[in-house]
Known about the structure:
Elements lengths: L2 H16 L4 H11 L7 H18 L1 H15 L16 H30 L3 H17 L15 H13 L7 H11 L4 H25 L8 H27 L7 H15 L2
Helix pairs in contact: 1-2, 1-3, 1-10, 2-6, 3-9, 3-10, 4-5, 5-7, 5-9, 6-8, 6-11, 7-8, 8-9
Amino acid sequence: MNIPQALCLGVLQGITEFLPVSSSGHLALAQHLFGLQEPQLLFDVAVHVGTLMAVFLVFRSDLLQILKDTLSFFGSQHSSPFRSGGRGSQTGVKMALMIVVGSVPTALIGLSLRDFFERLFTSPATVGIFLWITGLFLILSRWPRINRNHLDAPHVLDALVIGLAQGTAIGPGLSRSGLTITTGLLLGLKPELAFRFSFLLSIPAILGALALETYHLGGNHPGWHILAVGCFSAFLVGWAALRILQSLVGKGKLFYFAPYCFAVGTLAFVLAFW
């Protein structure tokens, strides 16, 4: 991989990581077009770190609230995050607990099926199938459940189901943001909460993937300058894409991306038999 390819893939990651069109699917197809036959796993992690930095920037107030409320909670001896009273606000504590709950199924799927999904990155036909599944799932976002009373965080069952959706999105062509946000909407979360929880939940998943790939790192990987170019370009473009998605989710326009997923999925099939 050279610097122009790294820049192209970083920009592609920044656009597709947050928009519900599957960054992993696009990266797999782009690597296929560039003739990179082996999956560039460390590079994939590097560009995901770039978009993670964008998440930190956009959700910095939520993260600070979680940190502040958690410290306040542990400083109080008799408070509970599931009832009123106690010392200080507990909104951040409840959100932190639900992030932990949602991360459990994600971690179980990622650890148990990691090798299986890695092999799929070299199969454009599989990417095409998964992109079609993503498109069909996005269409479901047109019919969300009537909003339930989620004031500041999902319930435990909501977090588990959304975490399960995030875990399955490890497959190339399955959009993490598309699956998790749509799942939240179908469970009755308000659009703003479904959006926030989706990306707050992505933080431990991306950090876990980074740690796992670093641990399994072999000798054959792109140079650090290649990783830096991909990471920084993904950060800048990802920040802009995240703001765009926030507006679209609020307007109930997530399903607009379904035709695009169908088109790219079809293109993947063409590439598979080129």
